[in-house]
UniProtKB/TrEMBL annotation:
Residues 47-70 are annotated as: Disordered. It comes from Tanacetum coccineum. This is DUF4283 domain-containing protein.
Length: 238
């Protein structure tokens, strides 16, 4: 015990030679107890390092996941932009740039020329006001003659389309000669061989697939490519 205390606990020979066996044993037991409860500093460092490593790994994992999410979102946005560009390119195949003053007016009957000329110089708010005035003056009574009859009929079909109306049945089998968009008023005009219709861009009308195909094949005329062209063509192709 004395040898152990001198070697391991740092006691001097002079400190131990005068002590009794009981004292030596007490010192030895105390030293052994300390040894048995000792935790190596390296172990604590390792545990602390492991804890820090776990924390660092967790943060690194979270950062990596965040970066992956950002990259995935960026990739999705790029893919969406590519898809949008491809879709826009497809839409443009059904459209041609034609200035308003170059529309084939001569091919359109005289009775429908005034509404077309009007739509080149009117905005949507004025168009809606015009319909309210015409409707207030004539109600739902079908006029029989003159320019007012044409105007009343065109506006009624445009704003209050009736699925059961003979207008839509008469479209069957007729070839499209002109399909024109008036961006200022949000109206597109379709001229067939023997009749015509004016339609609001955002409204759905009872057009048959065959009629829509005829319109797309003829191509939409507009003075420039814009969001309204895109939305109208997207609606028609879907």
């Amino acid at each position: 015990m004395s040898t152990y205390l001198k070697s391991m606990a740092g006691y001097k020979h002079n400190q131990l030679k005068t002590k009794s066996f009981k004292d030596i044993q007490m010192l030895f037991d105390k030293e052994m107890k300390r040894v048995n409860t000792f935790v190596d500093m390296d172990t604590e460092l390792v545990k602390g390092s492991e804890t820090r490593t776990e924390g660092s790994s967790k943060r690194a994992g979270e950062e990596l996941e965040s970066e992956n999410l950002k990259k995935q979102k960026l990739d999705e946005n790029v893919e969406a932009e590519v898809d949008d560009d491809q879709e826009e390119a497809e839409m443009k195949k059904h459209m041609e740039i034609v200035p308003d003053d170059e529309v084939a007016i001569d091919a359109i009957p005289l009775a429908t020329k005034p509404p077309i000329i009007m739509l080149q110089n009117i905005d949507r708010e004025d168009l809606e006001t015009l319909w309210k005035l015409v409707k207030a003056k004539h109600g739902l009574t079908r006029l029989e003659e003159g320019y007012e009859r044409v105007l009343w009929g065109d506006l009624k079909v445009m704003f209050e389309p009736d699925v059961e109306s003979e207008v839509w049945r008469n479209l069957q089998g007729y070839k499209v000669t002109v399909w024109k968009l008036f961006s200022s008023s949000g109206v597109h005009f379709v001229r067939f061989q023997n009749l015509h219709i004016f339609m609001l861009v955002e409204k759905r009308y009872p057009l048959t697939p065959a009629t829509i195909t005829e319109m797309l094949n003829k191509k939409l005329q507009a003075d420039h490519w814009n969001e309204m062209c895109y939305q109208l063509l997207k609606l028609m192709t879907k």
